[in-house]
Amino acid sequence: MDGLTPAPTSQAQIPAGGTEVDALRSRMxxxxxxxxxxxDLVDTSGLVLKTSPAVHTTYPTPFSNHASASSSSNxxxxxxxxxxxxxxxxxxxxxxxxxxGTHRNESALRSDISHQGWPSIFLSNNLVPPSPRTTQAMFxxxxxxxxxxxxxxxxxxxxxNFGMFWHFMQRNxxxxxxxxxxxxxxxPNLIFVDPAWLALLIAVLRVSLxxxxxxxxxxxxxxxxxxxxxxxxxxxxxxxFETAIFAARIFHKPQVRMLQALMILTSPQQLCRCVExxxxxxxxxxxxxxxxxxxxxxxxxxxxxxxxDLPTDPAFPPQLPHFTREWASRLTxxxxxxxxxxxAIETDRRESGVSRSIRLTASEVSTPPPRNFRDEExxxxxxSTSRTEPHPSFVLTEVSWQIxxxxxxxxxxxxSDHIRDPSTMTMEVVRSIDTQLRQGDYELLSLRSSHQLSxxxxxxxxxxxxxxxxxxxxxxxxxxxxxxxxxxxxxxxSAALSAARAIIKGHKDVSERQIMFxxxxxxxxxxxxxxxxxxxxxxxxxxxxxxxxQGIERELQVSMELFQQAQPPHSEDERPFWDTSVGRxxxxxxxxxxxxxxxxxTDIPSIESYMLNLNLRGANxxxxxxxxxxxxxxxxxxxxxxxxxxxxxxxxxxxxGDVVSQDPALDWDSLFMGx
Length: 675
Known about the structure:
This protein has 675 residues and is mostly helical. It has three domains: 87 residues, no CATH class; 218 residues, no CATH class; 219 residues. 57% of the residues lie in helices and 1% in strands. It has a two-stranded antiparallel ribbon with strand order 1-2. Helix 15 runs antiparallel to helix 16 and helix 19 packs antiparallel against helix 20. The longest helix has 29 residues. The radius of gyration is 31 Å and the shape is elongated.
């Protein structure tokens, strides 16, 4: 037939038996069922799935759908033909309808897809292949992604370190999506993967890779590759992320996944040093994240917004509004946190210049703060129970640390505003805020008594404990100074001294346990910043209360030892700033110790004059990890009080005497700033 000669029938060939005929008939019936099912799901106007409940019982995985869109005149005919070939393709892979009407893979059960079809990395409603340009971009992105073993190392590294502190994605969801990616990364189906999800994957991989580049653990680094290999891989990740931004068309189709990717890359984990901090790209990414948050309406989901009006997004499961609300809250308030920190710093420094980056302000956020839910209670494969009320504060969840970070930033901004407007700083206000800070700190410390914390978790807890105490110290600073002449303010003196000693003790504890630099990229400079504030306050107390002088000298000696024993961080980028901070801090404490043992000032004006002179003093102090002294010129470029924002104006202004001529008094408010 048609020029083809049928193969001759072998004499040894045995006619098909009844069993084989029945099997063939059953196979044909399966094919017919597939064709009828798929054609029924297709609207007569083209390749559009009907929105029936049955469609959403399982997520439609796109297989071999490479037919191009046809003209409107022959759309129904082409669509039916396309669906026929899709059915054949499904059948060849072993998929058949189950008794319940859902699809089942007879050769391998699809454990990576939940019964609700979520989570999924595929663009569910797009059965038309992307443009050739986007298709090429997808394969370019995939070519930059390493092997599965390396992906596993980098993802686990992120989730065990950075992802524990700044929680921007849910682990069980991401792992389910990652399993899907491993199944299709080498298949033609890759072109149907959501490019925004690929951007999220690359963001996770790149943050971990950057930490490994600076890591000193050779065993861990060699699991991924040597340092030149890691740097080359990082360049590939950077290019792939830019390509993913293009392929995702975020200006046409904004997505939560792209927001998550940008927030991971610009995380304030490392003292606000994001992956691209050396360029303007980091600021642009932060601006894009805020714009995406607003466009997706994540910042306006208050209790008055009904569930039916919540934003729909591939990152949010359908018919689980609880998940949508909580994750919208977590992402929104993480962006608000950065804005509040920036505003508090500017308030402390009395800056009024135009910011280089946009911010999310409290007036723009109506979404309630995140509540203390575990991730698995928001979504899991077995959603047999659904928790509607959050856990008590002493229960550790994935979002516990962020909740405390948000509170610390909130009070930082409130206290800074009160300090800059002294008329609002009454004793009643101080006591009220003090009570709230102590409650937050008590809830934080209860996590240690309720859980067996890991080393990294214990370091996080101690850092936030210091941050709460730093807020207390700043809150009482003004009344603390008055307490030596007016016993009405004895409460503030007691509260401030207690906070100062708690800060130093916390720093000493983590130093003795040698966990200060075990966490990659953790902002350990916060311990030293807090410590400087605490040491200055103890110095003032010793000057004004001679009976306490001997005891405080011993306390400051402990502080001196901590600064002398300090070890530099792994990151070469952070080391110069760290050297200056710790080196000059050691100089500061050493000078105060000598003054207390010789001729300390005994009144507030004399103390201010002494601190001002100490700021202007040039000294050759060696950096903590080097035997060589810092050149005098380099030391004068960043003086300690300028570094800790004790004075208005730059360090050079102070050296030129501008600060002295304008305002010879110390800016005590800025002295006690710091997260």
